[in-house]
Write a structure and sequence with these properties.
The complex is a heterodimer of chains A (60) and B (312).
Chain A: H1 2-7, E1 10-12, E2 15-17, H2 19-51, H3 54-57
Antiparallel strand pairs in A: 1-2
Chain B: H1 3-19, H2 27-33, H3 36-52, H4 59-83, H5 85-90, H6 106-127, H7 130-151, H8 158-167, H9 169-178, H10 183-206, H11 208-213, H12 219-222, H13 225-243, H14 245-248, H15 254-276, H16 279-310
Helix pairs in contact in B: 3-4, 3-9, 3-16, 4-6, 4-7, 4-9, 6-7, 7-8, 7-9, 8-10, 9-10, 10-13, 10-16, 13-15, 15-16
Classes of the chains: A mainly alpha (60), B mainly alpha (312).
Amino acid sequence: MSQDKDTKPDVKNDTVWTEELLRERRKRASIMAVALLAFIALFFWVTLVKLGANIANRPL
Amino acid sequence: MSQTYKEAHKETLLKMQESASTDVGSAADYIALMKPRVMSLVVFTALVGLVMAPGDMHPVMAVAAILLIAVGAGASAALNMWYDADIDAVMSRTQNRPVPSGRVTAEGALTFGLWVSGLSVLSMAVMINYLSAALLAFTIFFYAVIYTMFLKRRTAQNIVIGGAAGALPPVIGWAAAANSISIEPLIYFAIIFFWTPPHFWALALIKNDDYQAANVPMLPVTAGVKSTLSQIVLYAFVLFGVTMLPFTLGFSGLFYASGAAVLGGIFVAMCLALALASDKHRNRLAGMTFAYSIFYLFLLFVLLPTDKVMGL
């Protein structure tokens, strides 16, 4: 049974997940992660610009 | 749109859904969904609108604004590809797009388009200002709903009215920088608005058979080649007049006016040559007019900030 699992391609929703497709999917997920991180960085950066000097001048 | 065509539309969509039940699209497919070539012109014209606006914008804010406009434009393109998958599958120019080719499911394109649209508009509101966010939301809505869902399959004036969506990016860029709208960005809007019909009709002349097969009522399909050529020439003359408005109204100088006059003169001459061409040479001239129109718009939007810097 376990041997079958090793040799048979992963089939979900009629799609045969070949090694190449799985590699593409991993690549897509990585690019999405990088894009999300870049977006977070942009948000942070814009926040710093908007707050400007007020960051240093806030009351304690 | 006949009932038969509606049925054919549904049938094609069902077939595509059956053949692509799981999304196997790569990152490149999702980038292709955003029509990067169209996006580059959107980014460029939005940047010019932003640069021409009064006041100083922090470079980080400017980068964020342009990026969000690009992402919003890409999202509306994904929504367009979701809805138009059935006609894209029929046309040679578009049949290899991610949805008709089955690499991305129609649902995948819809989900991606909706999420990215929402993200870009909300981020624009939070990071930049409400005016530019509202304009970006309107642009996405106009392109994805008004143009794609209503105009494209119903009227030969589809790209005339729909051209408003493509003409808005410089207005959004201006609004992002100035948080207001004045006559200048509206003139930039008018330039792109009147540029769009001759640009797309030149392409429609070459791809007439494709549009006919897909039952898209482009002007050459509904009114014939002769009428389309007259309209192309008419719009080229109107566009020439509109491109002179920045000089006439006094917010661009002689450098812009002389450059726009030369470029516009060439465009009018090309459109006239296209209208007078024999059947044998028409497609070649239409291809040249289409290619030149892109170069023409690009240079017009290079001339505007260059003229401002030179101050002539």
